[in-house]
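Re: duplicated header lines in exported structure tokens

Our pipeline writes sequence and tokens for each protein into one text file. With two proteins the header for the second block appears twice in some exports. Here is an export where it did not happen, for reference. First protein block:
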Amino acid sequence: MAAASVPEVMINSNGIRLARLDYAKRLHEVAPASLVAISLDSADTKTNDQHRGAGGISAVNAIENLVSLGHAVCISTVMTGDNFKSAESLIDRFFPDVRVFRFFPRIPRSVAEANDDEYWTELSIFFERVQQRAGTQPWLKPILPYKSVQRSEQGLMFDTLEHCCCAFSKAFIDSSLQVYPCYYSANTDTRYGDLLQDSFKAIWSGERARETREASRLRSLCSVSLLRPHVPHKFHSQDWAHGLT
């Protein structure tokens, strides 16, 4: 399995199954060194459920189960616009048991969302506030798609690759065990392989992966930029895709 083949495994989950302690224990036994990222947009579960559906309580229970087992947890938060005031409360509630918090801008699914200046201004203010807080709490590790933080953590790869780095540095495995460079570039053109048929090592070093990496040298595989609000390719529709830049 992938956990035995790569140095770092992150498991993204909505927490529904991990809300069961027996299931959380099974995961901990199989992949004890993995980092489990639970999706939760607010410590106020009602605010969370406005966008994610009725799963906030399960996500909280999953976090508490994993923490009780001593398993590393990350909380992944999408800044929807409704949670600018409540997202930071996740740190108040779960730190220091949870030390890694990922705050993402919402990915635009329309031109209107991409050009929502008020949203991007409020988002920048939120990122600044969390970054200042991290400076006073040394063990707090927020992962922010904010230009000053992003640049400090980019590494040398960003100096040599003009477009995508995901194909060279990570892999996304979906629920059917198909392997892609990342979530937003997951489509038939970028599929590396199937873990039901081949090992992760074979897929990672296979011909499809090499072809995708070469393609990523020439163009962005997903169109997502952490510094510019573009609509990912997978959300393009024929009605307005030609107007995107």
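Second protein block, exported in the same file:
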Amino acid sequence: MCPLPKLLEYHGETGKPEAWLQQARAKIEVDYHGCTDYVKFWALSGSLRGKALRRMEAWVREQGVPDWADGSAFLSRVNFVFRDPQAKVRAQRKLDALRQSSKPFLELFMEWQSLLLESGGSWPDNAKKISLIRILSDELVQAMATVPSQPDFESYCSIIKETDDRLKAYKARNRTQGSKLTTHHPSLLGSVLQTLHKLEQTTRT
């Protein structure tokens, strides 16, 4: 079995232990599977630095003995000490306020996805679609009106990105020609984008 990359150092960024905890759990599960909890405990402790080391030091000294040391308990302690109890609430507020405006869809999607994870919970695909369509610009929503429905969420996101890319390309071309894109007629806009899409497919073939 191939070992995982070296466990990252954790410096105690308050409210942001999740990424380190995720990597630490995987590291312990894969590379330390056959080791004792004592070894796992001190392997995890060895990655603490700065504020994290100072805040965990007393507990580590107390618990880091062969009879008490426990890798799972160590991870739970890090989560207890450094997690932000209001992080989910703040993430949900940011998610509620998020809008595309002039952002490219990919940039918006990455921000939306990050906030979705931070807000917690398990979102079914239909709920994700509703949440995502709510934050898109009116222009992109209009353009999506003529796009066929997609069978899964990944395909749905891909077609939004393609539509957004074509829309921006069309607007850029119109700007260079000194004209303006009219966004008040979704059927006209959709027809234009469908034509561009067909031209792209023809070019590829």
